[in-house]
Amino acid sequence: MALLQYLGTGRRKRAVARVFLRPGTGKMTVNGKPLDEYFTTYTSRSLVRQPMATTETADKFDVLVNATGGGVIGQAGAVRLGIARALIEFNLELRGKLKGAGYLTRDAREHERGKYGLKGARARFQFSKR
């Protein structure tokens, strides 16, 4: 018997999230931990739950996520995009709702590398005329 699941990949800054939607009761797991344990802030948890709430599918699927790279908010954004893409794989009719809410747009702002001889990507040392 084949396992029924829907895959979606999300990226944000340096973070990558592989999201698997499986028919279930609404349990969310990120890297083997419950969602509330992995994402400790309310902001990041609500960011992750947005696509499921918009499409009213929160109690229909168990969500399994493998997230790597980046920081907490970057990973949360990547998970949100991954969930939205997986929901479209499940039902193409949800695309209009998700696109209207802006959950299918990949945030193209990338991490900028630090420049040699400087403190970071843009920061300069203070100029002294004398």
Automatic annotation (TrEMBL):
Keywords: Ribonucleoprotein, Ribosomal protein. It comes from the Bacteria. GO terms for molecular function: RNA binding; structural constituent of ribosome. InterPro entries: Ribosomal_Su5_D2-typ_SF, Ribosomal_uS9, Ribosomal_uS9_bac/plastid, Ribosomal_uS9_CS, Ribsml_uS5_D2-typ_fold_subgr. SUPFAM superfamilies: Ribosomal protein S5 domain 2-like. GO terms for cellular component: cytosolic small ribosomal subunit. Gene3D superfamilies: 3.30.230.10. The keyword tRNA-binding does not apply. One of its GO terms (biological process) is translation. Belongs to the universal ribosomal protein uS9 family. This is Small ribosomal subunit protein uS9. It comes from Paludibaculum fermentans.
